[in-house]
Task: structure prediction
Amino acid sequence: MNDPTCLTCEHDEHGTEECMPRRAKDDIFCRCTGREGSGGVSTNYDKLPEHMQEAARRYIEEGEMPGDFLVAVLENNLTRAFGRADEVNRSAMWQWCLWLHNEIPMGAWGSAANVLAWCNEQQSLRLAARVEQEVPG
Result:
């Protein structure tokens, strides 16, 4: 793609602090909104511990607040994450770091406020989509 305008948030140029792009399924992915040009979140969960993939998916895609370990990871709280981790997650901490940095939107992690705001936003989007489906048009 040669167009420098973000397909989602319409920032003038990718690469600014507000909008850091990456490739996702052959489309530009807006890291500031967590959306592809097509409007959906594209996240790979395959490299996470198998028993954690569903909780991670529900958090990203549905805004469901995860358990203590994953919340600590998402809040970027290293000591609490290690304290809450089982043996598998302790061994996979590097994979968790890569997942945060490379797979999920910037606004979905980094602080307790970001995690709470992400859950609220995703739940609001799901509710709005349900209402839109129910309203006859």
Q: What stands out?
A: Residues 1-42 form one domain. The longest strand covers residues 21-24. Strands lie at 21-24, 27-30, 35-36.
